[in-house]
Amino acid sequence: MFRTADTSRLSQPRARDAWLLLKRSIFLPPETHELSMSRRPDSMIARLGFSPYRRLISMVRPYAGRLAAGVAFGGLFALMNGVLVGFVRGGFKVFDPQGVAWPALIGIVALLPVVALVRGAADFLASYCIQWVGNRVVMDLRNAMFEHLQRMSVAYVSENRSGELISRVTNDTALVERSVSVVISDLAKQPLTLVSMIAWVFWLDPTLAAVSLFVFPLCVVPISRYGRRVREASRQVQERMADVVSVLQESLAGARIVRAFCREDWETSRFAERTRAVFGRLMRVAAASAMVEPIIVMIAVAGVAVVLVYVRSVGMKVNDFAAFVAALFMMYEPVKKLGRIVMSLQQGSAAAERIFSLLDAPVTVSDMPGAVDLGENVDSISFENVDFSYESVSVLRGINLSVRGGERIAIVGSSGAGKTTLVNLVPRFFDVTSGRILINGRDIREYTLRSLRSAIGLVTQETFLFHDTVANNIMYGAPGATRAEVEEAARRAHAHEFISQMPHGYDTVVGERGVKLSGGERQRLAIARAILKNPRILIFDEATSALDSESERLVQSALDELMGGRTVFAIAHRLSTISNCDRIIVLDGGRIVEEGRHEELLALGGIYRRLYDLQFQDVPSPGNGGRGAP
What is the value of pTM for the model shown? Predict the structure, then answer.
């Protein structure tokens, strides 16, 4: 049945299949809630009129006490400015024909250092309290972004450049930090100073005050005009900075490839090109920002000129004139800083939009309401009519597979057949496009992610190790393990021998991504990590691929021991490692085309037989020009 619903509350359409946006009496293309929320901020946020600073203000509320203290000290600062104007008026009475009493003048001179001290202390405390709030908000913002990224699906992380995400967490938040600190600090002091000075000038001479203040509205025009330019240029700066970080991250991660192909100069040129783009946008921001203050100063000078002409025509006491001019100059300072506030707001707003677009990206793989913990036992795993598509490209089609608890399943197939995608669906790195996966007869989406993934051990072909000690890398999946348990896991993975020979043994730092270890050593640490976790389901993506023949034999023996009584999915490129599996699944074009034991599939004479012959027998192969397989 086709149904429509009219709504202005964005929390309501989440359950709808699709929703339409009406803009200027034209329906925009239909799209899902998740797709809409994942779009760039300048399309969705601007379209709906959300203000990023409104959200930043909501993050300030937990620190309202410290903020109130900063505002109070800002009020004291403004009060001391008013007192200084009063002292100027009293001190300049010495030029009045009637003079000023010496005791009063001595009192003013004596109190001036006290007022200056109180003013300076108030200025410091106001700035400190406000910047504490600003820095704390940005810290919370960074932590929220990192936490959100940890909950995002593997698909989101794969679809976005790591340099882009890093730039949002670092560069964009740094710009928001500067903006928030400048804006809140100035707003805590300058408006109160402006009010006190306006009060002074109107008390001294209302007519002259009205004449001198008529130029203030003229300041709005340059601030508004150049503010828009700053905002757009700042957004471009942040986007180009993301390009810079991406190039840097790629060149460091691929350092060996860069040097092996002698591409150092090309990478340097590529990086310089990105930094030039940033420089160009930064100069646009600088030019637009630098134009505001001189224009405001010119307007202020015009106001002072009007004051001088007026005073010359009507006359005014020297001390009143001195106090009026002092108040006027103190009043122009907040107005001048208003330009800086607006420029900072525009720069921070562009960065905040990029930050909130990340925070608003939907978590597509999460616990459903009422999710339960997976029990201790895994009696069965079933794939029922599972399809999976990635960016509209079908990867898996019609997968039906039933696995008994404790069964060892090998998955083979040519490159791109969908082997890794299939096993990635079990821990819900991705969710199925259609169909379902069941554990113990229950859809895995009904289990909590933590309990599901805690039951799964993973050893991938590309081993990832953290820049930490050997022991901490092995303990990553079991942080409460003892040193004895860590060493036992290493022994079972045949890693204890080489670990013992390292400079600091299990306390040796392995370097970023384990760069200080060989490929085989990294692989054995990953196996030890899986052994220590003691999972009920094991996923191996060619876990022995980086080992030499002797190490492979030893580790395969340890894996056989580890796999006992556990449900195992083993992706295999080297068919010699899977002949003892209970069942072998052959994937081709995203479908299961063959299934059985090693001997049965060989006798079948299908794809598995061809793959086996290519590896172990001398048969003609199109890939080697008709020569036998090596």
Answer: 0.71
